[in-house]
Automatic annotation (TrEMBL), chain A:
Species: Gryllus longicercus
Family statement: Belongs to the methyltransferase superfamily. PrmA family.
High-level lineage: Eukaryota, Metazoa, Ecdysozoa, Arthropoda, Hexapoda
Protein name: Methyltransferase-like protein 5
Pfam families: MTS (PF05175)
GO MF, one annotated term: rRNA (adenine-N6-)-methyltransferase activity
CDD domains given in the database record: AdoMet_MTases
UniProt cross-references to SUPFAM superfamilies, sorted A to Z: S-adenosyl-L-methionine-dependent methyltransferases
Occurrences of domain Methyltransferase small (ranges): 45-142
TrEMBL record, chain B:
MF (Gene Ontology): protein heterodimerization activity
SUPFAM superfamilies noted in UniProt: Trm112p-like
Family statement drawn from the similarity comment of this UniProt entry: Belongs to the TRM112 family.
Source species: Gryllus longicercus
Record GO biological process: rRNA (guanine-N7)-methylation; tRNA methylation
Keywords, comma-separated and alphabetical: Cytoplasm, Nucleus
Organism ancestry: Eukaryota, Metazoa, Ecdysozoa, Arthropoda, Hexapoda
Name under which the protein is recorded: Multifunctional methyltransferase subunit TRM112-like protein
Main location: cytoplasm
Pfam families in the record: Trm112p
GO cellular component, one term: perinuclear region of cytoplasm
InterPro entries, per database record: Trm112 (IPR039127), Trm112-like (IPR005651)
Xref: Gene3D superfamilies: 2.20.25.10
Coiled coil: none
Subcellular location, record wording: Cytoplasm, Perinuclear region; Nucleus, Nucleoplasm
Length: 210, 124
């Protein structure tokens, strides 16, 4: 399978439609096509963790990461999210891209209804960061991800929490490595964002489980 | 919802449920399609499956075909067998219906191919 160059993948992912009415409580932001494309491209080209693999996306939202993974050759993907409206948009997007190897489950990732351990080869996610109403939720997502993945987890976490995230991951038996430092440029998604855009420093971390 | 996904789903996060597996299936609408066969992927997935649960699930919706009830040895090299597994795992989708917890009887609706496994506050 030909590997999309990051720019080409980014172009494709720009066609993924975002949340119609993002919910503050769930910290719904769309992972930018630029970040998603570079993240996914690295995961495949450096680590070969997408093509032919069984991939999960925790907190998939409208599906940027899952769709990108499928475009890069994932064999099967299962996406999980708590919001039925997001999954409705997700389904629309998947149909637009005419992708058939994605399944979805509506659930709370923190109580993920999955019985297998090490089910998936790779888990990818852009979890809620745990600000505002849900403290510690990013680590809850990470803990679930580390149980579900057989080989590796790729996740985005606020740079300000890096030390704590790495420590926790190690205590859970993973070998974490920061792959890149990114900057989220979030346009004023919610009414309370007084600035025009909000910049957040974010780490892309690979958690090795082998 | 493909049978591959069904094979991993459980209701064990529910209060009062010990195992919650396998979930029963009530299928109202099923879609059968043709998808690309990847023998290597199917071969790698088989050891992760609960084979008995897979066969029972497929049988309960009338789609077990001639899939053997017991998993054979040396399936990695049996392309015909792998194709049958591929079909049952990935080409049969429950579009509308329900999943049923074997212990509590609680029903989880499936609509537009998506199982709703959200629990109420009093169920956690």
């Amino acid at each position: 399978m030909a590997l999309f160059k990051p720019k080409a993948l980014e172009c494709q992912l720009q066609n993924v439609k975002g949340f119609e009415k993002p919910k503050v409580k769930l910290e719904q932001y769309v992972t930018s096509p630029h970040i998603a494309a570079h993240m996914l491209h690295t995961i495949q080209s450096t680590f070969d963790d997408l093509e032919g693999k069984f991939v999960a996306d925790l907190g998939c939202g409208c599906g940027v990461l899952t769709i990108g993974a499928a475009l890069l050759g994932a064999a099967q993907c299962v996406a999980f999210d708590i919001d039925p409206d997001a999954l409705e948009m997700f389904t629309l997007n998947v149909n637009e891209f005419d992708i058939c190897n994605i399944d979805t489950v509506l659930c709370d990732v923190r109580f993920i209804p999955v019985s297998w351990k090490k089910t998936f080869d790779t888990v990818i996610m852009n979890p809620p960061f745990g600000t505002k109403h849900q403290q510690g939720i990013d680590l809850q997502f990470l803990h679930v991800a580390l149980n579900l993945a057989g080989k590796s987890v790729y996740s985005l976490h606020k740079t300000s929490t890096r030390k704590y995230v790495m420590q926790k991951a190690e205590s859970w038996g993973a070998k974490p490595k920061v792959l890149a430092e990114l900057r989220y440029d979030l346009p004023a998604t919610y009414k309370f964002h007084r600035k025009h855009s909000v910049d957040i420093d974010v780490d892309l971390i690979r958690f090795n489980l082998e | 919802m493909k049978l591959l996904t069904h094979n991993m789903l459980t209701s064990k996060c529910m209060k009062g449920v010990t195992v919650g597996y396998p979930l029963g299936i009530v299928a109202k609408d099923i879609k059968v399609s043709e998808t690309e066969f990847n023998s290597e992927f199917v071969s790698r997935i088989i050891p992760k499956l609960d084979w008995n649960a897979l066969w029972k699930a497929a049988d309960s919706i009338g789609h077990s075909g001639d899939l053997p009830q017991q998993l054979m040895e040396d399936y990695e090299n049996n392309e015909e067998f792998l194709k049958k597994v591929h079909h049952v795992l990935l080409e049969v989708e429950i579009i509308n219906g329900e999943l049923v917890c074997p212990e509590s009887g609680r029903k989880f609706p499936i609509s537009q191919g998506i199982p709703n496994m959200l629990l109420n506050e009093d169920e956690l």
